[in-house]
């Protein structure tokens, strides 16, 4: 007879943590590119921000899928995995809105693109903090 393990609290593995932590520098790079664009008005900075946001959405999307799998496998413990998944969902959703904002002409993307980049970067930091903090709490 095969005994299946019981997952009391599933924590992010190394690949999940890498994907999760990869969103922060990409969203931060997009924010810095937006700041550089507002200072110089060189269109290439807006292009850099668009590409960085697209990369962050790829990393964040895969991290969200991993988080959903971990949430489905884990028993509920103090709501920690649910908060983490909701933070990732908010980060990805607002990141997608930010990508749509950056798809406009560079001049039309600002200042809303800059504000969205700040919000998404803070959300990515909060999601990463929550996700990696829960990995240490067993």
UniProtKB/TrEMBL annotation:
It holds the Pfam family DUF2231. It comes from the Bacteria. InterPro entries: DUF2231_TM, UCP029509. The chain crosses the membrane at residues 15-36, 48-69, 81-100, 112-132. Keywords: Membrane, Transmembrane, Transmembrane helix. Residues 14-133 form the DUF2231 domain. This is Uncharacterized membrane protein.
């Amino acid at each position: 007879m095969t005994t299946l393990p019981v997952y009391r609290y599933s924590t992010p593995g190394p690949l999940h943590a890498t994907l999760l932590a990869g969103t922060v520098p990409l969203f931060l790079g997009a924010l810095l590119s937006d700041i550089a664009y507002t200072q110089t008005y060189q269109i290439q900075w807006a292009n850099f921000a668009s590409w960085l946001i697209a990369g962050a959405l790829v990393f964040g999307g895969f991290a969200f899928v991993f988080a959903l799998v971990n949430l489905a496998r884990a028993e509920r413990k103090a709501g920690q995995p649910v908060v983490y998944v909701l933070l990732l969902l908010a980060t990805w959703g607002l990141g997608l809105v930010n990508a749509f904002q950056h798809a406009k002409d560079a001049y039309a993307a600002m200042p809303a693109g800059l504000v969205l980049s700040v919000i998404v970067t803070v959300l990515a930091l909060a999601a990463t903090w929550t996700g990696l903090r829960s990995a240490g709490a067993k």
